[in-house]
Amino acid sequence: MNPTLEVIENRHSVRVYDPQPLTQAERDTILHAAFRAPTASAMQLYSILEVDDQALKDRVAETCHQPFIAKAPYLLIFLADFQRWMDVYIYSGVEEHSHELNIPFRTPQAGELMLACSDALVAAQNAVIAAESLGIGSCYVGDILEQYEVHQQIFSLPRYVLPVTLLTFGRPASPQTQRKPSPRLDRRYIVHRNQYKRIAPDEVDLMFQLFTGESDSSWQRKTAAENLAQENYLQKYNTEYMVEMNRSVNEMLKNWS
After folding, report:
1. What is the pTM of this model?
2. What contacts 80, CB < 8 A, 6 or more positions away?
3. How confident is the model over 38-48, as pLDDT tens digits?
């Protein structure tokens, strides 16, 4: 296995960090890797927000319900961003030129948002792999999708800029270095050939067995669920934070459109 594949294979989330700050060279390397990510039409439909103000880090740790954020040495928020291009279009007379050509001047729609989210996430993963290659751990925080109105206000986000993901970075504290990568579903449930195939009822137990190394009946559950799917639903899907996330994202979509 070559070094790049080893980095990908061994990467795991790190939430406890050595307090030593990243050097400027390390931060620059992580950012440069993000910039080199593939991007739709070379437009780079994202922005990256470096958050080093401790008061802001504390506030985001609160809104995301993740105390470790406040102690992370380096914090980046990846934003879907079409505002930059809209501003450039306006400054460059695109609206007037469109009228002269008798074509509509269009504002960003759902398609542009999907492309911008894709650009932001691809850039984020490049940053993660670059950091990992330097011995710097990271953790994705999806909770940045919650509390949109608060994040919009504290970060001065204009209409066509939305938070997509938050990343914390730092050198792993000693216990974190012993963590093993999380398991993944067997490829038979992920990779489809030519046509999508839905999972069959009699495949569910095997899917969980291959995922956890145990049968569904022997899995240690944290809830009153009767099987792993019910536990996942109660712990991950039907939760207060997902209710808030959906409310928040719906507000983002309303504002964008």
Report:
1. 0.94
2. 45, 46, 113, 116, 117, 119, 120, 161, 162, 163, 164
3. 999 999 999 99
